[in-house]
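Chapter summary example.
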Amino acid sequence: MCGIAGGAWTSDGEPLSRDGLQRMAEVLRHRGPDDEGVFLSGGGNGGAGLAFRRLSIIDLTSGHQPLANEDESVWVVLNGEIYNYRELRSELESRGHQFRTQSDTETIVHLYEEHGDEFVTRLRGMFAIALWDETRRRLLLARDRIGQKPLFYRHDAQRLVFASELKSLLEVPGAPRELDPESLDLFLTYQYVPHPRCILKGYAKLPPGHLAVYEQGRLDVRRYWQAPYCDDSLPECLSDTALADSDQWSDDEWRRQLRETLTEAVRLRMRSDVPLGAFLSGGIDSTIITGLMQSLSERPVHSFSIGFPVEQFDERSYAREAAEHLGTEHHEYVVEPSALEILQKLVWHYDEPFGDSSAIPTMALCEVTRREVTVALSGDGGDELFCGYPRYNAVRLAARIDRLPVWMRRAAGWDLWQKIPSSVEQKSLRRRGKKFLAAIAQPAEERYLRWIGIFDEGWRRRLYTDAFREELGGFDSAEFIRSAYAMCGERDIVTRTTCADVHSYLPCDILTKVDIASMAYSLEARSPFLDHHVAELAARMPLRLKQRGSRGKVILTETFRDLLPKSIQNRGKMGFGVPIDHWFRNELRPLVRDTLLDSTARSRGYFEPATVERLIEEHETAQFDHAYRLWHLLVFEQWQRAFLG
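The structure predicted for these 645 residues follows.
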C-alpha cells in the first residue's frame, strides 16, 4: 500500500524534475512512511518520471519501487496489492521471465511484456498503477475494477501528471487552483464529487475499471471491466466462464459458489508479511469476513471495533458477541470524536470536499487499529452487492406503487406527504415515510436520487445565487446516476439500483472514505467482498436470493449461518455514524455560525446568505433536521480555506 505520483511529457512539454517528483511524493508520506523512490527518464523525444512512497506489506527487504523488468525497458509504480501474484509469478517464470524480488509489483512488468495492455485483466487485487514503456515512450495508468485505489491526473497539451491524491498534483509548479462549478453542484447533490470529475477545473479522476494511455501527447481512456449485471457485458467482463451457465444453477449451487468464492477471496487477502486483523462492527458483513479469517488461521485473529457514548450509534455489544462466537482476540475502544478537532484533518486528507460524516468514526477506527496491525480486512461492499441497505426495501415498495396511474401516485403522495408532521430524529420511521412519499410520483431513477441526495433540486435552487445558477447553465447533476443505471440492463428495479450503487456510491463514497481514512494512519484496508470474482457472482445472482420480503442479504445469512450468532443474523443495519445533528445544536453551534455566516463565506458568491441562515435557524430551533446539509456547507467552506484561500 503506497502513494504514487509522476507524469510524462512530449518533446515540447515541460519535464518534471527530480526535486519536483520528490515534492509530489513527500506530500503522500502518510500513505507510505517506510521507503521512497524516484525514476526519471529524459531525452529529445520527451520523457517520464515516477515517484513512490511505500508502506511495506509484502517483501519487506527488496520490494523497492519504482521497479523495472530485466533490461529496464519497463518501469512501474503500484499503489495497492496484487493478491494472486504468486500464481502469476509461477506462470511467468515458466515462460522464461526472471524475477529479482519477491514483491507482487514485479509481476506487473512481466505481465505487460507478455500480454501488453491486457495485463490488467489478469490482476486480482486493488490497485492504481503507473507503467512507463521506455521503448515505446508511452505511459499507462490503470485503476482496479471496483475503485478501491484512487488516481487523479491532469492532462494539458504537452504533459500528463498523475498522483494518488489531488494535493500531490498541486505540488507541480504552476498548478492551477480554480473551482469547477459543476463539480460543486455534484458534491452538494451526492455528498461527493463523482468520477471522472474533480472539484478543480482541468483535473480528473480515472474511473474504476479503466485504463489510460498517454502517447505522443494524446490521452486515450477506455474501460476494461464493468460488473456484469446485463448479458451484453458478459463476453468482455466475466473472469469465470462458469458464470455464463449460472442461469441453470439451483439455490444450493449459488450458495456453494458464494462460500467457495468468498473464502478464496479472504484467503488471498491474508497474504502479508506484517501483522493483520479485521474490522468487526458486529454486522453481518464484517462478522462473515472475520469468521472466514478465523477459519483460515491457526491462531486467534485480532479484531477491532469502536463504540460511542451515544447508544444509538454504539454497536459494541454486537461486535463483542461476534468476537466471542468466532474466538478472535478482540480489541474494543470507546471514542468520542470531536468534529471541531478532526474537521481540518478530514479536509486536508480528503483533498476534495467530502460530505460523508461517517468518515469521522472511520478515521477513529483506523487510528486505533493501526496501533496493533498494519493490515485490516473489512466487510465493505456487502450491502451494495447483496442488497443490504434498507433503502432497497423502499425501492421495491415504490415499484409496486408505480403500477398505479401517475395522477393517483402524485395525488396520494402529495396529500400524505404534506400531512405527515416533520421529525428531527435522524432514523425515525416518520421521517423516512415523509421522504419516501415526497418523491413517489417521480421516475424511479430521479426518485432514488432524491432519497439518497443531500440538496435536492429545489433546495439547490434556493441555495444558489443568481450568478452561480447562471454559471451552471443547463448542467444536470442527475445525469451521473442515470448513466449508472444505464449500465445495468433490463433487470428488476431493485437489482438495477444495487448495480447503480456499485458503479457510483460504492467507489465514490464508501471506498474513498475507507482508503483516505486508512491511509491517513498508514493502515492497509482490504475488502474481500470487492474481489471481482465475488462481484461478478453477485451481479449475476437472482434478486430472490438476496432480498426476501423486507430482509436483505438473505443468501449471506443462509450461506454463512455457522459464522453468525443468532442475534446478528436478523438484526437491522445500524450504519456507522456520528450525532452531527446534536453537535450543530450544541458544541459546534458557534463554529457553524462563525464559518458559514462570516464575510469570507458570504463574499464567495455561490450561496444566498439568507438561505444559509435559514438552514441554521431551523436546525438550531429543531424545526427541521438540516444536519447533513449544514455539514456539507461547513466542509466546503473549510476546504476552500485550506486549498483556495
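To summarize the output: The longest helix spans residues 251-269.
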